[in-house]
Write a structure and sequence with these properties.
about 45% helix; alpha/beta; 6-stranded parallel sheet; amino-acid biosynthesis; 5-stranded parallel sheet; Rossmann fold
């Protein structure tokens, strides 16, 4: 990967250029808009046409039967089942700590205020197909929804010419998915947002996908809620002279292999480490089955920045706002307060990013593309909604009536003021 060594100001400018690129997606936007309109109007028929066109699969039925799911679970290697169950336990124990309670406040005489927290009724989860299968993502999307109390969790995933991945179906059973449909791409997002003859609409759509899926989620937002607009995966590593180059390189490649547009970034105050990690990545990438993908990510999106000191490293990485951030420094946890922008943080030499991908428990559905500046990881809160409530006695309202009518008339809303005054008109 390219090594950049410059002043902090210049590095910040280069990071802004590198990480704020806006892809020209006019063709994708237009295509997705047409797909969504077609599915909204023609339902199942449109979906089947698109699956034939895009995935080369003729579908008689869109829904995966319970018998198919059970058979896939039975056919999945016990070692895989055990690993999924371990992940489920850890994901569950972590996300149970996120549950929020409703509250009621009655401290002011005659006034009751509060907030009622309830789960969404139905959620759709998109599970990618294509070049890799992600049973772990099913657990990460579904378990928080179930902890929140969502009654109906629908999974959509592209059909495959040789059948759905068995581990994906097994993970769906373990996580507690209620319905599974074989539909992918923008047409899957449209079906969840608008409903079809077979697929009832949902209230929210979560899960990662390609540019067409991400664009579709953006276009249906407002019709339904979405988790975030996710882009290619990212990993940032902050490391000093104590880090092991082969381990840093391996961690950077763990995300580079996801996508040609993935972004592996190392920031260090040690030029020798930078050189050694670069050499290790060149060596290790040749050993990967997904070498072509990882090499493209290294060449086009990755870089190593050499800074004056570790404080500058955190300043620079906060500007990147990476999806995943590893801190490979002694006493790594002591640096936690210096991290302002990151999706998920991995502290210490043994906290390799794949720990979080699979079994640690924190969610791996994370903000990308610098959106960790304002987005958060997927969690239980994303599957709940808040409803506020208030109750006033007549005497309590009388105490505040003048303030209400004053503000109403300042805003030119006379009917607002009269609605309050009507409670005190003589009869």
């Amino acid at each position: 990967m390219q090594i950049i060594e410059d002043s902090l100001d210049q590095l910040l400018k280069q990071v802004a250029i590198r990480t704020n690129k806006v892809a020209n997606r006019d063709a994708v936007e237009k295509s997705v808009r047409e797909i969504i309109a077609n599915v909204a109007e023609n339902g199942d028929a449109a979906i089947k046409d698109y699956e034939k066109k895009f995935d080369n699969v003729d579908l008689d039925s869109l829904q995966v039967s319970q018998a198919q799911i059970d058979q896939a679970y039975a056919n999945t290697d016990k070692k895989v089942i055990d690993a999924l169950n371990l992940a489920k336990r850890n994901i569950t124990s972590f996300h149970q700590m996120e549950v929020e309670d409703s509250f009621v406040d009655a401290k002011q005489k005659g006034v009751i205020r509060g907030e009622k927290i309830v789960p969404l009724a139905a959620v759709g989860v998109y599970v990618p197909g294509g070049t890799a299968a992600y049973p772990s993502s099913i657990l990460m999307n579904v378990i928080p929804a179930k902890i929140a109390g969502v009654k109906r969790v629908v999974m959509v995933t592209p059909p495959q010419t040789d059948g759905l991945n068995q581990a994906v179906l097994a993970a769906a059973k373990i996580a507690g998915v209620d319905e599974i449909y074989t539909v992918g791409g923008a047409q899957a997002i449209a079906s969840l947002a608008f409903g079809t003859e077979t697929i009832p609409r949902v209230d929210k759509i979560t899960g990662p996908g390609n540019a067409y899926v991400a664009t579709a989620k953006k276009q249906v937002f407002g019709q339904v809620d979405i988790d975030m607009i996710a882009g290619p995966s990212e990993i940032g590593v902050i490391a000093g002279s104590e880090a092991v180059p082969s381990q840093v390189a391996a961690d950077l490649l763990s995300q580079a292999e996801h996508d040609k547009m993935a972004r592996p970034i190392l920031v260090t105050d040690d030029r020798q480490l930078a050189d050694n990690v670069s050499a290790e990545m060149d060596r290790q990438v040749k050993l990967l089955p997904r070498q072509e993908i990882a090499q493209a990510a290294m060449d086009n999106e990755g870089f190593i920045a050499v800074v004056k000191d570790i404080d500058d490293a955190f300043t620079l990485m906060n500007a990147v706002a990476p999806e995943h951030l590893e801190v490979q420094l002694p006493d790594a946890i002591s640096y936690l307060n210096q991290i302002q922008n990151a999706g998920s943080v991995f502290l210490g030499f043994s906290a390799s990013e794949p720990v979080g991908d699979y079994v640690a428990g924190p969610n791996h559905i994370l903000p990308t593309g610098g959106t960790a500046r304002f987005f958060s990881p997927l969690g239980v809160q994303d599957f709940m909604k808040r409803t506020q409530f208030v109750s006033y006695t007549r005497s309590a309202l009388k105490k505040e009536a003048d303030a209400i009518t004053t503000l109403a008339r300042v805003e030119g809303l006379e009917a607002h003021a009269r609605a309050i005054e009507s409670r005190f008109d003589s009869k």
